[in-house]
């Protein structure tokens, strides 16, 4: 069967390329730790900070080493006093041209702060500035599962090296099986995601709710996809925060997307689901528990929930532009006017 | 002159009470440090996490000690491995009955993790659970400037004790002058805030943008005031993030509130202002630089910007319910139905 913007073999090949980065990343991390690493900093803007958010969750469950999430635009102002030459700064820019990522890399280079970063091609301006440059294409153009994969390799290697991940080999074995599991999800949900895309094509506002390690995808899908690429208004809100304000706006005809994962915070999102279903007739729950994910051990399903969710969202995005008749590529302002 | 929901003497008296907490707080912090403090955790939900956000900024500029911001509902799931008996956890609940704050206090008590917390009265259930309980009423019912004041006392005492604040006495001298400065702002802006309230009374959607230490107030005013108390849709977004999606929704008739402070990130917000003014005819900039704040040294204006902004927002809120005819006290669901 053929799928819009998706071909199983191409997708799996892309992910195989990502997995091939493992020895290079481990070597980088060994080198960084030889020089000393006191804390891990993840600095990004927009899509790139959002793909890093599940990694913060992944790391802080396992290590007492401080993990700092920094908006790259604020990071270069030097506000965080804990950032030193013994920090390791993770940067990410698919195009390798994101202004804020380049500025952050320059900032670090000038101060001798080591950086490890990913961009899609060797010629990207970001590459020259990084202490530990990684070149790798996207796993999937329409979702962030490939980005998660690359970051999992970096962060798990850091945790392992820091003595916080005895199960590193087991984790990597599971990570290797993730692409097949994600491809299965994409194929399984495609038809349903298409139907949902047509169902919401005329909505002008959505609430998006998620918690724990799904928050990054919740925030990103609202801002980078629905707002930027579809010009649809959104409010993204963390599940426990929903009850401190946004709930009052929910009415019978309010569209609300609830992203339910398998980490420790699952019941916080279930609480939103139970409430929302009493009020609105337009509640959409995407529950990663519905996906089989063959070969993935129960132990890691919670960690991989963000990638499972992205597998769904990638399919939804592919169909949404057809349903709304609004191409994902149109911009009013971004790279159209100077600001 | 008389002001709705505000009387200068009452306001200043409330703040004098807050300042009287200083010796008690210092004693608490001395005691906590005698037992050892490795990191500072601020845990809250909704309004309470938002008032803590400027404190994270205030602290991380001055100390390399890790500061963790935790959603209280997620905090009790024990996700952050860095939280130990040598953490100091800050909790806050004006009513002293917020479920999540109480659960967090219990969680800490059972594990011997020290807590310092504030609530409005001695009988509040939160009080019994805290290692270091503080009782103090609100500074202002309609804004968060009083909350900031209490938290400044706690966080500056921690920084001082940790050897990160040589200018502690000078800071406290300035903090003592803050209430008069805030009262002046409230009185000065009242008429203009009223006019703005009437100007926006029929708007059904606002973008709210702020950066750095103003982000907490931006987030809170959108969710706790406009959404919860006025049932108006909002999108709150950090200034550098605005350019990674939300900008595409801005049109000539889109209402956007831009909160401009005096910390290091000011120019990130100026960039949004410059862009927004090219597109929309409904741009409102609240710039704390416009306020005199007599007696406050230039050195601390950036730190106090969130309180300056709150002084304005308190007046706006007071008039907004008259302008919209929607009382601040009506709720559809909160404490009306069980969920």
TrEMBL record, chains A, B:
<dbReference type="GO" id="GO:0004360">
    <property type="term" value="F:glutamine-fructose-6-phosphate transaminase (isomerizing) activity"/>
</dbReference>
<dbReference type="GO" id="GO:0006487">
    <property type="term" value="P:protein N-linked glycosylation"/>
</dbReference>
<protein>
    <submittedName>
        <fullName>Glucosamine-fructose-6-phosphate aminotransferase</fullName>
    </submittedName>
</protein>
<keyword id="KW-0032">Aminotransferase</keyword>
<dbReference type="InterPro" id="IPR024713">
    <property type="entry name" value="Fructosamine_deglycase_FrlB"/>
</dbReference>
<dbReference type="Pfam" id="PF01380">
    <property type="entry name" value="SIS"/>
</dbReference>
<keyword id="KW-0808">Transferase</keyword>
<dbReference type="GO" id="GO:0006047">
    <property type="term" value="P:UDP-N-acetylglucosamine metabolic process"/>
</dbReference>
<dbReference type="InterPro" id="IPR046348">
    <property type="entry name" value="SIS_dom_sf"/>
</dbReference>
<feature type="domain" description="SIS">
    <location>
        <begin position="29"/>
        <end position="168"/>
    </location>
</feature>
<dbReference type="GO" id="GO:0006002">
    <property type="term" value="P:fructose 6-phosphate metabolic process"/>
</dbReference>
<dbReference type="GO" id="GO:0097367">
    <property type="term" value="F:carbohydrate derivative binding"/>
</dbReference>
<dbReference type="InterPro" id="IPR035488">
    <property type="entry name" value="FrlB_SIS"/>
</dbReference>
<dbReference type="InterPro" id="IPR001347">
    <property type="entry name" value="SIS_dom"/>
</dbReference>
């Amino acid at each position: 069967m053929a799928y819009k913007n998706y071909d199983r073999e191409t997708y799996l090949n892309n992910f195989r390329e990502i997995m091939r980065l493992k020895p290079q990343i481990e070597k980088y991390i060994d080198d960084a730790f030889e020089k000393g690493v006191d804390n891990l900093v993840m600095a990004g803007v927009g899509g790139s900070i959002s793909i890093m958010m599940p990694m913060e969750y992944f790391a802080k469950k396992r290590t007492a080493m401080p993990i700092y999430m920094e908006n790259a635009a604020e990071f270069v102002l030097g506000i965080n006093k804990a950032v030193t030459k013994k920090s390791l700064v993770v940067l990410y820019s698919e195009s390798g041209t994101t202004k804020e990522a380049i500025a952050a890399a320059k900032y670090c280079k000038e101060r001798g702060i080591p950086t490890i970063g990913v961009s899609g091609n060797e010629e990207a301006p970001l590459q020259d500035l990084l202490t530990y440059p990684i070149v790798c294409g996207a796993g999937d153009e329409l979702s962030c599962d490939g980005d998660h994969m690359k970051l999992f390799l970096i962060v798990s290697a850091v945790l392992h090296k820091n003595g916080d991940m005895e199960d590193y080999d087991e984790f990597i074995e599971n990570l290797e099986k993730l692409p097949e599991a994600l491809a299965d999800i994409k194929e399984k949900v495609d038809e349903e995601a298409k139907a949902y895309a047509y169902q919401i094509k005329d909505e002008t506002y959505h609430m998006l709710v998620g918690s724990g390690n799904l928050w990054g995808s919740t925030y990103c899908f609202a801002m980078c996809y629905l707002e930027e690429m579809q010009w649809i208004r959104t409010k993204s809100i963390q599940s426990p925060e929903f009850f401190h304000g946004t709930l009052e706006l929910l009415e019978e005809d309010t569209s609300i997307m609830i992203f339910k994962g398998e980490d420790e915070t699952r019941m916080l999102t279930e609480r939103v689901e139970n409430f929302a279903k009493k009020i609105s007739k337009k509640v959409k729950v995407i529950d990663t528990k519905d996906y089989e994910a063959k070969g993935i051990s129960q132990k890691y399903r919670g960690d991989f929930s963000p990638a499972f969710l992205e597998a769904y969202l990638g399919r939804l995005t592919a169909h949404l532009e057809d349903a709304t008749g609004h191409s994902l590529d149109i911009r009013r302002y971004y790279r159209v006017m100077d600001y």
